[in-house]
Amino acid sequence: MRTHALRKIGVVLLAAAFLAATAGVASSVTYTLRVAADNAVMPDNAVIPVWKIANAGTDNVLGFPGPTLVGTVGDDLVVTLINELPSDNTVIGTGNGISLVIPGLGMPVVENPPGTPLAQQGPVFVTPVVDNVSLPPRVVSFTQMTPADNGTRTYRFTLSKSGTFLYQSGADPSVQVQMGIYGALIVRPADPAQAYPPTATNPNTTFDNELVLLYSAIDPFLHNAVVDNTYGTDVLPTTFEYEPKYFLVNGKPYQNQVDPLVNHHDPLPIGPPGGNGTLLRFLNADLNAHAPSFMNTYVSVIGEDGNLLPYPGRHHTVFLPPGKTKDVLLVPSAPAKKVPVVDRRLYVNNNGAYPGGYLTFLGVQGADVTGPVTAPASFDPSSGISPVVLAATADDSATGNSNVVAAEWISDKTVREGYGNPMTGTFGTAAVSDLAAYVPTSAIPADNTIWIRSQDSEGNWSPPVPVTSAVVGATTPLAIVSTDFVGGERLIVRATSGAAAGTDSMTVTWPGASAPVPLVYRSGLDLYEAEVMRLPAKPDTVTVTGAGGSATAPVPFP
Predict the structure, then answer these.
(1) 177 to 41, 215, 439: CA distances (angstroms)
(2) What is the pLDDT of residues 17-29, one digit of tens each?
(3) Rounded to two decimals, what is the model's pTM?
(4) Are 547 and 497 a contacting pair, CB within 8 Å?
(5) In terms of domains, do 290 and 303 share one?
(6) Most CB atoms within 10 A, among 56, 341, 434, 545?
């Protein structure tokens, strides 16, 4: 019995010794981030030099902004930087060396190799020399830098509190953050279903889904100045001249497609109505303040900069000064709809072109967020007679089952949705089989591509469907130039003919007409014209017949 008791005491003491030895030993979450120069293509095809970050431990694909990092309170966050930037732009004093800081958390321990702290920690100073005069030392980096040309350093942070944080370069941050060295860090509490440990006055921190919304911007002049080494000179001495032209959410401006025909309305997915809602993690890496505003709903702001607020705030606008992070709970109400989020400061353009920039749609789970399927179109006739009838169909039954409410055709792919040429159809159902439009051949010369798109009742547009014309507009034998109905009783029709000037005997008729009406040749206009008086009502269409065949057009036209 004594031996058994001593054995039990020994086991207890051994367990206690193990717990004492391991107490305070944090686990580590490790990342290897590769930084390199690359380009970003904007919606207007502008190619902007940027610096991108890749997660070398996973896909190693350069991204803009950097990958989202995730850890838990009490962990050590260990990030090894690989700096593939060229050693240039030494006028700034960094030589394109970079570092890593996380505002809201403590300064990192810089190591090289990993696990071995550098002898020199803390900020990096340089002594500027202007006109052969040494100026007082200035800080160029808040912590030790990773040198350019494939240098490596490891940065070890203690994740002391939960929340959302912006990781960024600590070396000349007004420039290097602008160039692209930034990303989001999520630090979870012990309960990963919570944003923060709740308090009595701010108890609702549990969420069902989460989404990062990282705001930033691009000043092309600044980016080019950094790359060609003119930043810091008289060309662009400081970022006081900062004038961004492109405004990004998660690295992309609204309508972030080189080809606008690609559907650019794909919303960012969030959870369904009800429940605990979606945690929106807002971050602002721009040098300007922004104010994302939610249309038709309110949100609960529960934390900022890694701190749970004493009380939640109910708002429809979230103010984001530079460097700010905020944690926001959105609980969508039924029925599920898209939620637009727009910057109240109206940075909603791409280099002046509207819409663009800070315009985002959140796709509530269960909402119709996809446009109808628009079927390939056809021309009738294709012989060159103007106008031709453009026909198509639209079907939303498999993409949300909302009613189709509009359709349009465009000959210029840069035309904004809703600003094209309207098409007719039996709208108000999920499937419309009779979309049609009369198109003058002048708008569709031979082998020219035009596009058709349709819209459902939830505001979703389909991607435009191309159709190539075989119409030869320049040699049209007969074409209706225009139709009009004036003063509630007077019909005017003008047409051209491929026959010799004044030799064609052209007539016009319309549904309900008692007899064809001749068109008279107007030599001064080089066209044929008919003016019919005292009609009791406007005809829907007219048909002109002549030596070159016949053509039908709506009234009015074009």
Answers:
(1) 18, 12, 50
(2) 333 444 445 689 9
(3) 0.77
(4) yes
(5) yes
(6) 341
